[in-house]
Every structure is written in C-alpha cells, then in structure tokens.
C-alpha cells in the first residue's frame, strides 16, 4: 500500500518443464569382445534402464537386437527379456557388429553397439 490509498502488486511468474531423462542402452562386455563362432552367443542388456523409473519398475522396456551381416543370425529379434541367446552358427574369423535398441512407449529409443570377433577356437 502506498500512503495515497492505492494498491501496488508485483507478480513474478516462473515456469519450468519436467523433462524425462533418455533411456540408457548398455551391452555387457564393452565395445568389443571375442566369442567362439560355433557356440550360442549371449547378449546381455542387464545394465540398460529407464532412469525415470525405479530399478524395480523396468518391465516396460523393449529390447531389439540386430547385426550387420546379411545372415539369418542377424535377423531382428525383439524381446522384453534383457538376455538374448543367439544360437548362431556364426562364421569364424568374422566381425559382427551387434546393435541394441532399447525403447518404451513415451521415450525416444536409444542404441548401443558391440563388435564381436568370432573365433575358431573356444575361449576359456
């Protein structure tokens, strides 16, 4: 109030937007690894997550696996499971680039990739 009986009001408006964090896509084993060409190949996305949800509420994620060769072992595979066993067989002495895409209903999909060098001999 001013002495002359007039009111004065100051308003400050503040707006903010809550933005979802992006999905985290991770393939266990790093950027590259070796594997025995004639054995089933385990691909593991266990460390992938939606950071906007609690760790015990991650069941909404979908995992799509593909690789870079024109072979039946590289056909797209979509699953809700974090572990994918690809039974091959793979060609020895070849490098396969596997790509994981993690998606859910309301967020942009995120990808990770891993190079896998297929060997002729079993790994210990």
Automatic annotation (TrEMBL):
Q: Name the UniProt key words of this record, in alphabetical order.
A: Membrane, Repeat, Transmembrane, Transmembrane helix
- Provide the GO MF annotations for this entry: monoatomic cation channel activity
Query: Where would you find this protein in the cell?
Result: Membrane
Does Disulfide bond count among this protein's keywords? no
The answer to whether keyword Membrane applies is yes
Query: Which cellular component terms (GO) are annotated to the entry?
Result: plasma membrane
Annotated GO biological processes are: calcium ion transport
> Could you tell me which InterPro entries the record lists for this protein?
PKD/REJ-like
**Positions of the PKD/REJ-like domain:** 16-124
PANTHER family named in the record: PLAT DOMAIN-CONTAINING PROTEIN, POLYCYSTIN-1
The name this protein carries in UniProt is PKD/REJ-like domain-containing protein
Which organism does this sequence originate in?
Clastoptera arizonana
């Amino acid at each position: 109030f001013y002495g002359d009986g007039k009111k004065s009001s100051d308003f400050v408006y503040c707006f903010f937007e809550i933005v979802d964090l992006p999905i985290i896509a991770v393939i266990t084993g790093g950027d590259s690894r070796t594997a025995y060409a004639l054995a089933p190949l385990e691909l593991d996305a266990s460390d992938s997550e939606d950071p906007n949800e609690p760790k015990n509420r991650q069941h909404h994620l979908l995992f799509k696996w593909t690789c870079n060769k024109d072979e039946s072992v590289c056909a797209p595979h979509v699953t809700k499971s974090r572990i994918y066993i690809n039974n091959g067989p793979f060609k020895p002495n070849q490098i396969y680039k596997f790509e994981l895409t993690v998606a859910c209903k309301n967020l942009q999909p995120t990808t990770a990739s891993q190079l896998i060098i297929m060997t002729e001999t079993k790994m210990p």
